[in-house]
Target: adenosine deaminase
Amino acid sequence: MNAAADEYLMPGGGASITALPKVSLHDHLDGGLRPQTIIELGEEIGLELPATDAPALAEWFAEKSDSGSLVEYLKTFDITTAVMQTQHGLARVAREFVQDLAADGVIYGEIRWAPEQHVARGLTLDQTVEAVQEGLDQGVEDARAAGHSIRVGQLVSAMRHADRGLEIAELASRHYGRGVVGFDIAGAEAGFPAGNLRDAFDFLAQHYIPATVHAGEADGLDSIRGALFDGRALRLGHGVRLAEDVHTAREDDENTYVTLGPLAQWVKDREIALELSPSSNLQTGAIEQWGDDLVDHPFDLLYQLGFRVTVNTDNRLMSATSLSRELFLLAETFGYDLTDLAVFQLNAAASTFLPLEDREELADRIATGFDEA
Model:
């Protein structure tokens, strides 16, 4: 069963989290495939898989992804990207991706993926973007027919360890406003700073194309600085390790005082969104310095300090999750109520790469949905 098909209620019963209107900012296309789709597309190209039935394959992905290492976590994508090398494969995956988001109550989603990883069977970069857009459009129509209203946009990612940043930025520019809403860099973070792609970010700035940058997941504060000042990032992909710049000191048994370093203060003051992904952050070891349970995640600390926190899935297949499940886990762990969950969704709406008027309309839909819950 897809995680998106499961219904999550507020802890202790009550409102359906699944039915609430939600915004997804950090969700990878190649990390959200249905296991059965992998099996069927794999058969078409003769791909050998570690399991040949959907539940077992889903279990394999979850197990392999729970390694405590981003590098090891990323190896599972060798299988998903292998079945996404044709127009048919890309369009099908994108279509089902939107269907699953809509079934989980998402009303707006930005879907990130790296076209350069999908040209092994002869597609051009532009053809991959067009194939994904075709699937996304079909998924939106399917959702409408099923009684859901959803809007989506592509975030075109460049792989930070490759030397194609400017080429991918130019690709994003060619499709900007025709499905593409922004740019991202992804892949192994440590050792590959945003500054290596400075020419791409210069190009994007000159063409008024917004960027989010993976930073503060597998590397620390220097990576976040690079994302902000070399990448001109308007959002931080994960950004969880910004908490390294939050300093606490206990004065006595009752009082703990918190001070922010200059980087954390900058991010807070400018309301730069943190695309936090709780389950994924546990799997990749991004929060290992604070602990290995969800209660150790600095999400609540950052929220209580007034940072613009958002909740995301990162990779629904690898984490066996959905946006509703992530919200449920946070509510269960930190005692959040519907008011808190509404804040997370309004934060996300305000941080989308949509025009201002569209962001305001999205916020109105979220507020109405939560008021009626």
Observations:
- The beta strands are 22-28, 106-113, 151-159, 180-186, 211-215, 235-238, 246-250, 256-260, 273-276, 309-311.
- The first helix runs from residue 35 to 45.
- The first strand starts at residue 22 and ends at 28.
